[in-house]
């Protein structure tokens, strides 16, 4: 009986410890390193690629899938996900206040307790405001002196300056806004998964709602007829390279993880199969299914949620 109780206690303790470790948050994170050596390796692999699968497949979706499979295959080889430990944020130690400032704080508290029920024009109330302003100035001066002393005593002044800036940013913190939506029935949706599905269903049905709206509107009869014909010439690898190089070199990426900055490095190497896929897309009238997936992150800016 005692052994059974001990075993039950150990199991509960193990569950509690596991829950405690789970609540503490992730201790590791995964990231990719886009070093010049890795980029050169990626370019080397792409330069040796013949894109045989892209040109040999019959269906357009198969052609584009083969192109993306080759790109992502070399991408995973050259830029693997590296798991590393997350550094703990250092504790922000507030500077200690001097004895005169502490005495001034006690004096402000005493004046507040005596004048909180008085009129704003009362002399004791005015004295409280003056003491409060003097206390704020003394605290600000004490903090600035502590920061300057820390910077002056450090060997690497630029590093210490950035440490102070980061400490102030962490002290202010970042507001976490929970996205809430209200549906047509007036119900509030606060579940993140349901909010994402609501956004997805809304934006995915824009084309259908627009088509329905266009069908209900009477056509405009007084329109000028265009006698000229619209021609679409096939694209060339040179044109594709120009479009890729016109992209802003950003490190943000989509679902595939490939950024526009990385595409600019390999524009010459993927321009030939990419121009071929674009021309086939116009010929068969199909758009790649893989490019219809996007990452949507609603961010609250300001105002009422």
From TrEMBL:
The organism's place on the tree of life at top rank: Eukaryota
The protein's name: Reverse transcriptase domain-containing protein
